[in-house]
Structures are given as structure tokens and as C-alpha cells.
Amino acid sequence: MKKLLVISLTLVSLSNGWSQVNLNYYLPSKTQYNPAIPTPQSVIGHEVGEWHITHDRLVNYMMALDKASDRILLEVIGQTHENRPVIVLTITSPRNHQNIDQIRSQHVQLTDPTKSSSLDVKDMPAVFYMGHSIHGNEASGANASLVTAYYLAAAQGPEIEKYLDNTVILFDPSFNPDGLQRFSGWVNARKSKVPNADPNDTEHNEAWPGGRFNHYWFDLNRDWLVAQHPESQARVKKFHQWKPNVITDHHEMGTNATFFFQPGVPSRMHPLTPEKNLELTKKIGTYHAKALDEIGSLYYTQEGYDDFYYGKGSTFPDVQGAIGILFEQASSRGHAQESNNGILRFPFTIRNQFTTALSTLKAVNEMRVELLEYQREFYKNASAEAGKDLSKGVIIGSKDKMKLFHFVEMAARQQIDIYKVNSNQTVNGKMFEAESSYVIPFNQPQYRLIKSMVEKRLQFKDSLFYDISSWTLPLAYGLDYEELKTPISLGEKIIELKMPVGKIFGGGKYAYVIEPFGYYTPRATYRLLNKNVRVKVTTEPFYADGKKFERGTLLIHVENQEKVSPEQLQQYMKEIADQDGLDIFALSTGLDYRGVSLGSPTFLTLKKPEIAMLVDGNVSPTDAGELWHLLDTRYQIPVTLLPVSVFNSTNINRYNTIIFPEGSYASVSDVAKEKLKTWTQAGGLLIGFESAVNWFNTAGLAKFEAKKEDDLPTGQAGKATKDVQKAKPYADIEENRGAQETSGAIFEADADLTNPLLYGYTSAKIALFKPNNIFLQKATGAYANPLFYGNAPLLSGYISKPNYAKLKNSSCLGVAALGRGRVIGFTDNLAFRAFWFGTNKMVMNAIFYGSLLNSEVGR
């Protein structure tokens, strides 16, 4: 009772004003602190929790600790998209710092079964990675890092000294610097002197896209496995440099919640994660419970969240011999907000995060030997599993050497051993050429991680997923791959990966041609168009110098140029070969008796795209961000990010292409709809994704009809409705509803490779990522179904039976003619999280070739 009374008095003092917030509210009361270590307030200018910390002040404080404490070494390990530093503090005892390289080298040997047996873990420190606020607007984590860092630097006494002797802490105070800065600027600029807890107050309602995301509006907590962003690449490199035993990941959730710590729902743990991981996570959880009990905080565990997708920060360690711990604190989303549990104040949220940071530190120390032994056994067991696996590895290849390069680049970041192929290989009837193929053997320490990256999974214990249900990465990259049932002779191991460089073949001065298969062909196309080079695309195959060139090949005629000289054109071709990795063929004649000659009308002239993309309002920030990132960073094509409210009132005639990402467009005015229709009829190109396809239909821009129950084959129609109407327990409502969500699975579509939207693809079977329940009825037109799902399209992942019935024989792509313009709708996400390389070409084909489509493709 006495303890509870103290807590109550503290909360009352907080409610009377911010002046009562100081370090004593957070820190253990019986600990002494080194006065030579600066407090947060002395550096950042305010008490922790009084204002939201900005990233620059956060870094300043960490630098001050680095200068003042012999327990801390600060490193800048990377830069964000906005050039903010990504920092990590190595925190341990001064004695450990003197031998830090030796400690690290010895610790990493635990992940090598050929070396780990001789190590005596009783004398080894554990490695603990503390991470904060990967979602920038879940700021209690980053703000708590100020208190935690101070405690680790300044606390004195036998307990902390023992902890630091037995632990190397990798301390990342802000996983998402750009998002944290955006959010702190919002809430601080709208904070009143008298805190306003009304949820309707502007402080608690961020403007689009919010601070959750990084610069390009990506969720960095989904990027650990594929590491497409500089923030992720820096921390993944640090992870592998040290191979930590435990990672903590401090998040926030809805204001009306309490506090969550892992484990998540046990039935939703990935099968490649050992049961021992769950056992250890539960054991660590008892430390959190005890610590939160002591300060009187409510909490829960084993609900809502899961440990399935290995791309999340708390699950990524689970497939690599470590324990990932997710913390979710109810969010004040500002400085104070009303909730079902009373007024939730920012300092209270910080204290819970700090408390569980210390409870984890205690658990890591008291379980140190157990955690180190688990890490060693994890990799030994993985090695044994690899030896028993009927498959010995995978062979991966592609005609597109840049996509292949980016896949190998991604895999190498995860310390996966990759080898060249000594000679051409035929596996399961598929040819893999030596110069464009690699082998990843299973017999290596990262066996389980590799399996998770290449497997196709169709069986699941649970039908609910917090995130996606499949991510088979060779399919995502659009590569050919096969499992190897017998080992093959390995070539050179990849040590230093170099980006491919193209070549210029032939010495002709009549024309240059570029095949359509390369990933960066769109970048080269835009580069030429932007330099006023006339570029054409062939809609029929042709032959030159004994070689067949497929549909989609680019033609640049040397003399048919008005604004560039032959010498300039030659220089541009060299730049394309060097920078885009494309092979270029210099031809000496335009004559072709087997196909079409180069002056044929089947070569169509391209125009430079002037692109606007709708943002803001109810547009999905992540989907819009994926397209922005694709155009801006991969293809270096400018795109105007056009807010819906501006779109409603502005003149759109300066654009020839307008993109509607996934989202709701109810806020588009009737006047704007008519304006858009007129613009399209005059020759505009309209491209939409996912829900935008439905909006195109209701807005009268295209006839894209959703599949209905009546469209299902006999025996399947009405089945979904009957299933829902069966008598079921009330308690199962949420679970049954969640089981109908298609959170992310992989399906195979049939493609018409003669359609310009599919130029550059070499297989008529294409893997698509589907994160929704949008099912488009096939069109009646003979040429209007260039991409559709067949009778058995599921490749990997979960989809409910009723939804699968709707998906079968549905269209993935709608095309309509509206006057002189074209409307293109894709039902699926073609740029998913920047790692779904395989379908990026469709986006770019739509942009460059969509306006060239014959009017008969209309539905």
C-alpha cells in the first residue's frame, strides 16, 4: 500500500504542472550518480518529458556523454536520407573497452559451429542491443533513451558495475532520426502552456504523412531483412558486427491501451524459430512484469502481436540465435491525452520504457550464460539441420544482371555466403548460365535465415498475421531460382560485389538499340528523353547482326536527331552502359528481312513523362512513398507530389501522367473529377493502384468491375456468405474477421508478353505480391486481359478459402481508353517496400508506354 501511495502522489504532482518533472521521477531512488556526468537537462535545455526531444538535441546529449564517460564510445554508423547521423553508443565497463575488439571477435565465434565449442561462455560478456522509436511518432522510446543513457553513464555501485562488466550494450537512441525530427517539430510547435489532453487538439492529430515513417514514408520496422534504406543498412551492419544476444525495440500503440511486452501470440511464431526462443522470451518477460508491478503500471503479453515476419526489429533476431523483445507503450501522441485509463502523460510513457530497459538489462545479466549457450546451440543445430536437408542450396540467375546484383547485394548484407557458378547448369529443366548465376549453399551458419528468404510456405498454424505471410525473395526480385538436390561445383566466393557495367557492341554509326530486359532501362530512357534525344520503342521483333531483338527494344537513330550531335549521342551511350549497366548495340544498317526494318511504323516515338502523383488526404503514405522512392532514387525521374486539396483546384495540364496510389479519394471534388476526365480524354495517362482502381470505376473514368459472388463458379458462389452466417462464439469475432484479411501473399499471374505493359519480361508467369482483397472481373475485350490469375495462382502465403475463390481467374490489370487518353489500373502493389523489384518494370512500362496502347485494349 505504501508503494502505491507513493506512485499516486507522483502522478498527482505531475498533473499540477510540468515543473515537477525531473530525473527523480524516472531513476531508481537508492542509486548514487556520478556528478561529473551531465544530466539531460544540462545539455538539451529542458527536463526529459517536458518537451519532445528533437533529434539534433538527442545527438548533442549523446555526444556529451561520450565526452564525459569512460563507459561510452559513440560512433556515427550511417546517414539518413535527410543526412542526419545514425549513431550507436557502445556502453560497457572501462576494462571491457580496453579489450573491445577481442571481446567482439570472441563473441562472434559463437555463431560459427566450427569454432564455438572451445569457448567458455561463463567468462564472456553478453551483447545487448537497445533500440528506440523506429516509428518516429512513437517517441517515448527515444525520449527514454536520454534517461537510460544517463543511468548507464552515471549510476554508481556494485550492481551497475557488475552489469557493465558482464554486458556490452549497443545503444541506438533513435532508429528513425528523420521521423523523430518531423514528429517532435509537430507536437512541440502545438504544445500549450496549459497541457491540452483533448484528443481533438491539433497537437494529437499530425498532418499527413505523420512522423511514423522515414523520409520516403517507409516503415523502417519492416526493413531489417531486406535493408533497402540507409538507416537499416547501417544498423544491420552493426548487428552482424556484434551478433547480439538480445535486441529491444521500444514502440508505442493506441492511447487507450496499456503496455505490451513479448512474447507475442505463441501460435503465430515462425516455424523456423526454435521453441527455446519462446521459453527464453517468457523468462525475460518475468523481469518486465516484476519491474512494472513495482511501479504500478498495467501491462499484458501474448496478445495481438506476433513473431512471424523476420523483417521486423523484434523478429529479425529470432532467426539468428538472438532474442527480440518488442515493447509497446500506450501513446500520449503529444504531451498529455485523455484515455480510457485516465489522462495519459508523456513522462509516464517514458518511465515505462525506461523501466523495461533496465529490467531487460537485469535479465540479460542474470541469464547471461543461458543466452550465450542458446546462441551457440542455435547455430550448431542449424548446421545439423542443413546437413539433413534434402536440398543443398539454391541456384539463382537472371537475364537482368542488375536485378540479380541487387539480390546478391541484399543477401550479402546478411552475411550470407554466395558463390559464382563454374559452368552453365541445367536444374529441373531450367538453364542457368555461369556468367549470370550464383549459388547459395545451405551448409553455412545463416542456414535458417536463408531458408526463410527462399522458401515457399503454404501451411500455417494460425490464420492471423500482424504483417505479411510470405516474402520469398527470389520471387520478389523476379529471378529464376531452383533448389539444388545435389551439390554442384562452386566457383569463386563473392567477397567484394561490384555493380555490373554494360558494354557497347559493334561499331556501327546508323543507330543504337537497347534491349528491354535491364532493370535500369527506364532510367536510361528518361535520361535520353531529358537530353532531347528522340527515342523509339519497337512493338515487333527485329534482327540485326544475327541477333533477335524483342518487343520493347529501344531505338535511337543517329541522324534522326535535331538537338544532339552524333558525338554527344555516343557519350550518352557510354554513360548508359557505365551507370545503368545496360548493353548497347551500335548498328550499321536499318535493313531487316526477317523482322521489321528500323524505319518501320511499328517503332513508336516516346515522349518524356511529366508526372504528378496524388498525396495527402486519405492516400496511403507507404504506398505513395514506395512509388516516390522508386521514381526518385532508382530511376531518377522527377515526380510532383500533388496534395489532393491542391489537385482539386489547380490546372493539371502541365502533366501528361497522373498516378493515384492506394488510398481513398472521396475528398476529390466533383469539379476535379470532371477536370480529370477532360484531361484524360485529351490524351492524359492515368495510372492507379489497388483501391484507386475501384475509384476509377465509380468516378466514371473506366469500367473496372470488382468480382462479385455471382461471378464465382457453380458450387463456390455464396459459400463465403454461408461460412460467415454459421453460428459462432461471440469471442471469435475479431479472429474470424482477421482471417479474411489478405495481409500479403504471393501469386502467379499469366502475362501477355506482346502487350507493351509487359515488355522486358522473359517469362509469361510473373510473381505478384497481393496485400488486399481487391478482385477485378476479367474484361470482355479480346485484348483487355494482359495480366490475370489462373486456376491455381497461390505460390506462397495465406489467403482464406472464400477470397481465394474470388482471386482465381480474376484480372490483375485493367486498361481502358477514354477519348485519346488511357486509364490503367493495377490491383496489386508493384513496388512493395522497395524490395519487390520484379514488378517495378510494369510501373515504368505503364508510364512510358501506357499512352501508346491501342484503343482496342479497352475493357
Overview of this protein structure:
It is a single chain. By secondary structure, the protein is α+β, with helices and mostly antiparallel strands. Helix content is 33%, strand content 20%. The chain has 26 helices and 37 strands. The chain has a 7-stranded mixed sheet with strand order 2-3-6-4-7-9-8. Helix 4 (55-68) runs parallel beside helix 7 and helix 11 (275-295) crosses helix 12. It is globular. It starts with a helix and ends in a 10-residue tail after the last helix. Residues 1-19 have low confidence and may be disordered.
Keywords:
single chain; about 850 residues; alpha+beta; 6-stranded mixed beta sheet; 26 helices; 37 strands; globular
